[in-house]
Amino acid sequence: MAAVLLGAALAACSVRVGGPDSGPDSGSTSGPGPTGSVSATPPAPAASPSPATAPAPGAVVIRDFVFEPADFTVRPGAVVTVRNADTVEHTLTAQDRGFDTGVIAPGASATFTAPARQGASSYLCSLHHFMRGILTVS
Ligand SMILES: [Cu+2]
Fold first, then answer.
1. What distance in angstroms lies between residue 20's CA and the mean position of ligand 1's atoms?
2. Domains delineated in the chain
3. Which of 46, 68, 98, 134 is spaced 20 to 30 A from 18 at the CA atom?
4. What is the pLDDT of residues 58-106, one digit of tens each?
5. How far is the CA of 117 from the centre of ligand 1 (A)?
6. How deeply is 45 buried, as exposed, middle or buried, from its count of CB atoms within 10 A (0-12, 13-18, 19+)?
């Protein structure tokens, strides 16, 4: 550690970036060395992807007879996960039957494949027709 600090201090001194307190030039630096203007900062690690704690885009949760979110957008042909967080069975079914999760048991999840064509599709729960939403493929 001390060698690293000394090397950094010497390098800073050689390029004349060091501050006025560059310390003695001998190798007997006692105590904390010069702290100012150490340009040898370690390279920052590559940006790591943030952990996906929130529901990923394309994930739908059914709760209290409501699709959350009811209106959402996915890529063409995306596989969308639907989780039933309710206490009764639900489905997520396109009105034109272009996609359908089938019956999802309480606490279970299912997937469907979004249409390959861009556009908006109305969907509902085939068991509770008042549950509605719009899937947009874009
Ligand atoms: Cu339902």
1. 74
2. 1-41 (no CATH), 59-137 (2.60.40.420)
3. 46
4. 589 999 999 999 999 999 999 999 999 999 999 999 999 999 999 999 9
5. 26
6. exposed
